[in-house]
Amino acid sequence: MQKKKPAAPRLNIYLPDPSVRRRIKAAATEQDISASEYCVRAILAHLEQEQQTVSPEQERAQRLRSAVEQARRFREATFQDQVFSVSSAELIREVRENEEVR
Length: 102
What we know:
Blueprint: H1 18-30, H2 35-52, H3 56-79, H4 88-101
Helix pairs in contact: 1-2
């Protein structure tokens, strides 16, 4: 007794216009594939493109990570392992106070 091959997952799509169906079938015929295969390829390509698209939040996070990494490299190249006894916050405070006096 042979086992039946499991059915492939299905997705029904309702098209807004009969001309869309005709365009899909024509494009699939040009590529010598079924309309179903054409749609699968188009959907997968679209999903892949969406994954490559970076949201504004992701872009900002990437820029921040890059800026932090550049600052680290600058610090390492410029100061190496030097430890400073002066607080940077104190230096900034002094500069601001001197600017107010002027």
